[in-house]
Specification:
Elements lengths: L2 H12 L6 H20 L5 E4 L6 H10 L5 E5 L2 E5 L2 E5 L6 H11 L9 H14 L4 E5 L10 H18 L3 E5 L10 H5 L3 E4 L12 H16 L11 H11 L3 H18 L6 H10 L17 H30 L1
Parallel strand pairs: 1-6, 1-7, 4-5, 5-6
Antiparallel strand pairs: 2-3
Helix pairs in contact: 1-10, 4-5, 9-10, 9-12, 10-11
Length: 331
């Protein structure tokens, strides 16, 4: 396999998506927001939240791509670009004006000028002209940062007013800190749908989301690269150290798998080896590694499982403490 063929394999693998149940449920919540807004005629939007690396941005882009692709239409007064679904990230530093400039630039108006009221009017006209059905604002947690404190309430008020004007849903996406923004009652009323993505939990069961995801990615690379017999991502001897290395963080998991596949292809062999994964964990910074300074693929299976069980137990204990604190506060 030459370098051009290797690059094609790696690019195709990088685009593979495994729709495990939690991912499906989150996607369904976004779809419900669209339908509810259409039927009610009032903004009934969704907030997608989860830790960094849990697949939120990827889901946002999948959701955006589920709509018709952007095209052009000829109207009486000219030619316009239709944008059924629009995606952008929240600018930093965030203010109403910087937000408006960022959105308008993505909509094809890079030279938008004037005060916030002028740009807001231009935005509403652009959304109408582009026949936009949904907007997606990613990295919304930037509005919770200390540096956004002065502009936070103004930005929330602007978003509420915009929703009232455009009558289409705006999906907001970010880390769990975004939930604090729903303390604002007018905003909360317009965001009845919550969608949550988290790191994958470890389980040895064949039907677990972690094993399903690894099996889906394994099937994909074996088909794309036409690999011969070798290790499989969902083998217990492989999936346990993969979890220990990443704690189920999808972004780090993909980094490790990508590196291992690239090394396998570079070797010129058609068999994925454990050594490929060992070297991946040696070369990639893995801040969530449960085995700390040790390579999860170089410790015994029993030790690897001990790290995982200790982590899962601690996670459950922390969740129970949080729930108890919430209950005591409510009483």
């Amino acid at each position: 396999m030459n370098s051009t063929e290797q690059d094609a394999v790696l690019k195709q693998f990088s685009r593979q998506i495994v729709m495990y149940p939690t991912f499906d449920r989150a996607n369904a919540q976004l779809q419900r927001a669209i339908r509810a807004t259409e039927l009610r005629g009032e903004p009934s939007c969704a907030l997608l939240y989860g830790p960094s690396g849990s697949g939120k941005s990827k889901l946002c882009k999948i959701f955006r791509n589920s709509f018709d692709a952007a095209d052009h239409s000829i109207e009486v007064d000219g030619k316009y670009r239709n944008r059924p679904a629009f995606y952008c990230t929240v600018p930093t530093p965030v203010t109403v004006k910087s937000f408006l400039k960022s959105i308008l630039a993505r909509l094809g108006h890079p030279n938008a000028a004037g005060d916030a009221a002028d740009m807001n009017y231009e935005l509403i006209q652009s959304i109408t002209t582009a026949k936009t059905k949904v907007m997606i604002f990613d990295e919304f947690q930037r509005l919770t940062k200390r540096e956004a404190e002065k502009s936070r309430q103004l930005t929330i008020d602007w978003l509420v007013a915009l929703l009232n004007e455009i009558h289409i849903p705006i999906i907001i996406c970010g880390t769990p800190e975004c939930l604090t923004l729903l303390d604002d009652a007018p905003l909360a009323r317009r965001y009845p749908y919550l969608a949550n993505l988290d790191y994958l939990s470890f389980s040895e069961r064949e039907n677990s989301e972690f094993v399903q995801t690894l099996r889906g990615l394994d099937d994909a690379i074996y088909n794309i690269a036409v690999l011969e017999s070798g290790v499989h991502f969902h083998d217990m001897s492989i999936c346990a150290p993969l979890y220990a290395a990443t704690r189920g963080n999808l972004e780090y998991l993909r980094h490790v798998l990508y590196f291992a596949i690239e090394r396998c292809l570079t070797r010129g062999y058609r068999a994925l080896q454990r050594q490929d994964l060992i070297e991946a964990c040696q070369c990639i910074r893995l801040p969530l590694n449960l085995s700390l300074w040790q390579n999860p693929f170089e410790i015994s299976h029993n030790n690897c499982m001990k790290f995982i069980i200790d982590h899962e137990t601690k996670t459950i204990e922390i969740a129970a403490q949080k729930e108890a604190a919430i209950r005591s506060f409510s009483t």
